[in-house]
Amino acid sequence: MATRWTVPDPSTPTYKAMKMYRNYDGARATFGDLSVSASGPNPDVLSSFAALRTSDGALTIMVISKALSGSTPVTVNLANFSSAASAQVWQLRSTNSIQRLADAPVSGAAFSQSVPSQSITLFVVTTGGGKPPHHIRRRPGDHFTAGHLTSAPRLQPDPGLSLETPTRARPDRPAAPPAR
User: Fold this and answer.
1) Per DSSP, what are the bridge partners of residue 38?
2) Buried-most residue among 16, 59, 99, 169 (CB within 10 A)?
3) How far from each other are the two terminal CA atoms of the chain, in whole angstroms?
4) Model pTM?
């Protein structure tokens, strides 16, 4: 059985969500092509995906807020990545428009931003030197599984990030026990 897909109408949220990955700035800038690990505390409310863009070495981080109301404060912690002093912020909101927001300052390998409900936020973090690191390239035999680099004898450690949000109990779920 085959399925035929058509290009969504440019006015739809589906089209705009795809545009966040393939042409968020209108100048054909894209989400990265080399997956890196990303994790967050509650993917039911906030999901995160990250990838390096091998053309320029930028780290791209997509944060999807599934919250139905309010805003969620997010702190992005970077590991194994030498970043510039700020991160570009692009956002698709429930109003169905992609907007460039003010850059988020990066300090101590972390930055914070509040994301509105039902939104997709893209952070673009360039390298501190402004040039792509020479070690970012795919080679035959390099394997990537579930967003984690699994064979790295020829690559530097992959950048990683984690998202932190305040822990809130959901009324429909019991609170998680504290970590030991």
Assistant:
1) 161
2) 59
3) 50
4) 0.74
